[in-house]
From TrEMBL:
GO terms, biological process: cobalamin biosynthetic process
Name used for this protein in its record: Cobalamin biosynthesis protein CobD
Signal peptide positions (record): none
A Pfam family the protein falls into: CobD_Cbib
Gene Ontology MF, one: ABC-type vitamin B12 transporter activity
The species this protein was found in: Dactylosporangium matsuzakiense
Cellular localization per UniProt: Cell membrane
Membrane topology type: Multi-pass membrane protein
Pathway: Cofactor biosynthesis; adenosylcobalamin biosynthesis
Amino acid sequence: MSEPPGTFGPMKTLAATRPDAIGIALGAVLDALFGDPRRWHPVAGFGRFAGALERRLYADNRTSGAKFTAVAVGAPVLAALAATRLTRDRPIARTVLMAAATWSALGGTSLAREGRVMAARLSAGDLSAARAQLPNLCGRDPSALEPPELARATVESLAENTSDAVVAPLFWAAVAGVPGIIGYRAVNTLDAMVGHRSNRYARFGTASARLDDATNLIPSRLTAALTVAAAPLVGGRPSEAFRIWRRDGSHHPSPNSGQCESAAAGALGVRLGGRNVYGTRVEQRPHLGDGRPPTPADVRRAATLTTAVGAAAAALAVAARLATTRRRRRKPTHR
């Protein structure tokens, strides 16, 4: 259906030439204002779809896991490609589509909010409430953790998830538009569902875990670089954050998490890493940084880093998409 003359005014003029860039900006603003959608979250719907697909395709081998990953990621990407094609000549619809995809994929505001809740509970000395808060941030067993370990777990989760829930979705939105951001969120959700180490998923989840590693390779390092730049906002020094990142970034067992966590450790002046308990599994992680153990105040500073890095990443994503649009408009058409 065509839009009547004058509809949306200046918004229509902007969207006509820059729908993806405007959509990314609007989605980031919606996340900043409201956080994650509280009802009918698309990621929850995708999780139900992936769960049903897993029940049909599961077998304890890597081939089945690869088929599962291909279908679970391919289906939403194909749907996003179709929606993008349908809105190609409808700039307002294209803008709304990108804004909705961006908002649904971002989690920075909710992530920082959960971190501040933990800081408040630790500051109040409410250990039981702090332990109850930790599952909102990571999968560690909080039952025996004392305040310093709860603070460390929160800072590490904020650092890692600033990449997973903020920078990476924006990066893929800038690189590949709506299909990119939808595809990334599908990959990251699958990693959370089947990519962890367990008897059931040791082989079946390999493809999902490896694909998640690959899609986060650049975003995790971009997150670290933005964390270095944002260090003065939390009382840190970029030179120290950069030094710790370069020295300790590869010490983590994950090829990506260590990049974000080491840069955050340097920016905050704290030491991360140590003994982590995940149910019956215990992991001894290498130490990152030279500082003291994190405190509740450091948790609040880490939440500030999440917000600052997210804002910078959003600005970069909008700028990158604008540059892509300009290049396409300048490209000569051969008939």
